[in-house]
Amino acid sequence: MLERETAMLTRFARLSIAAAMATIVLKTAAFALTRSVGLLSDALESGVNLVAAAVAYVALRVAARPADEQHLYGHSKAEYFSAGVEGCLIVVAAAAIVVSATGRFLHPQPLAHPGLGLAVSGAAAAINGAVAAVLLRAGHRCRSITLTADGRHLLTDVWTTAGVVAGVAAVAVTGWERLDALVALGVGVHIVAAGWHLIRRAVGGLMDRALPASDHQAIEAVLGRYRHDEGIRFHALRTREAGARRFVSVHVLVPGEWSVHAGHQLLDRLEADLDAALGGAFVFTHLEPLEDPASYADGRDHPERRRAEGLRPEDGETFGVGHPAPMSPAPRAVS
C-alpha cells in the first residue's frame, strides 16, 4: 500500500474515532436527561463504535506494513481481524442491551424530559450519518474492509438511533412505559444481525475465500482473449483477497516448441492485462507445455484435479462464485 494511501486511510480512521467520542457524549447526555433504556442501548452501541474505531486504526497501520521475511505476502489480513473484533463487539453490546431492556420491561419507569433528550440524540445520529457516508465511500474506493465495516457499523447506528427516537417519542405520547424496553430489545436483535455479517466476512477473508463473481468474469474475459488470439490454454486458476490486496494464480499451457523467451514475454503481457482488468492485483503464472500430460496434474486440493480423478467435490470446492471451475481440456496426442 502506498504511503499516501495509508495516510489517507488512517486519517479516516481518526475521523471515526472522533465521531464515536462525540456521539458517546451526546447519547449519554440524552440517557441522563430521559432515563430511557432505549437511549441507553443507543449509547452502549456508540461505546462499541469507539472501541471498534480504535481497533480499526491499529489494523490499518498494521496492514500497511510492507512485506518482510516472516510475512512475504504482506500484512493485509490484519484488516479481517479488525472486522471480526468489531462484529464480536457488536454482539456483546447487543447482549448488554437485551439484559438492560429485560429489566426495564419487568420494572418500567416513566421518562423525564423526552423532548430535549430526543433532540440531543438526533444530533448524534446526524454526526454518525455524515461520517458513515464518508467511510463507506473511502472503503469502496480503497477496497478496505476495515473502513467499510466501520462505515456500515455507523450506518447501523444511525438506523438504531432513528428507531429509538421513534420509540421514545411514542412512549411520551401514549404513556405506555414498557414500549421503551421493547424498542431497546428490537435494537439488540437488529445489531446482532449486523455483527454476524461482519464476523462472516472476516472469517471468509481469513479462510482465503475466492474473489467475487465480477472479478472472475473480468479474469475469464482476459483469459478468453488469449485463448482465441494466442491458441493457448489455462488451468488451475486460484484467487483470493487479503484486505485491499487481490491475488491471482494460474497455469499457462503453451506449445512445447516455444522458446523460454517467447513464453516469458507472453506471461509478462498476461500478468499486466490481468492486473489492469482487476484494477490492481498480484498475479502469479506458471508456464507448462501444452502437449505434456503431466502439465494437467495439478495439486490434489484443486477441484479440477478432484473431478479428473472422479472424486466427488466437497462443499465449497469451487471458484467461490457459485459455479464449479471449468474442466481442463484433454491433452492432445503427440504424433
Please, could you describe this protein's structure?
The chain has a 3-stranded mixed β-sheet with strand order 1-2-3, covered by helices on one side. By secondary structure, it is mainly alpha-helical. It has 9 helices and 3 strands, in the order H-H-H-H-H-H-H-E-E-H-E-H. The chain has helices at residues 3-34, 37-63, 78-106, 114-142, 145-174, 178-206, 213-230, 260-277, 303-308, and strands at residues 233-242, 245-254, 282-289. The longest helix is centred in the N-terminal third of the chain and has 32 residues, at 3-34. It starts with a helix and ends in a 27-residue tail after the last helix. Helix 7 packs antiparallel against helix 8 (260-277). It is elongated and about 85 Å long.
Give the gist of this structure:
The protein has 335 residues and is mostly helical. The protein is 65% helix and 8% strand.
Q: Give the overall silhouette.
A: elongated
Q: What structural class is derived from the secondary structure elements?
A: mainly alpha
Q: Rounded to an integer, what's the Rg over CA atoms?
A: 26 Å
Unreliably modeled segments: 311-335
- Mean pLDDT score: 79
Lay out the secondary structure.
Elements: H1 3-34, H2 37-63, H3 78-106, H4 114-142, H5 145-174, H6 178-206, H7 213-230, E1 233-242, E2 245-254, H8 260-277, E3 282-289, H9 303-308
Parallel strand pairs: 2-3
Antiparallel strand pairs: 1-2
Helix pairs in contact: 1-2, 1-4, 2-3, 2-5, 2-6, 3-5, 3-6, 4-5, 5-6, 7-8
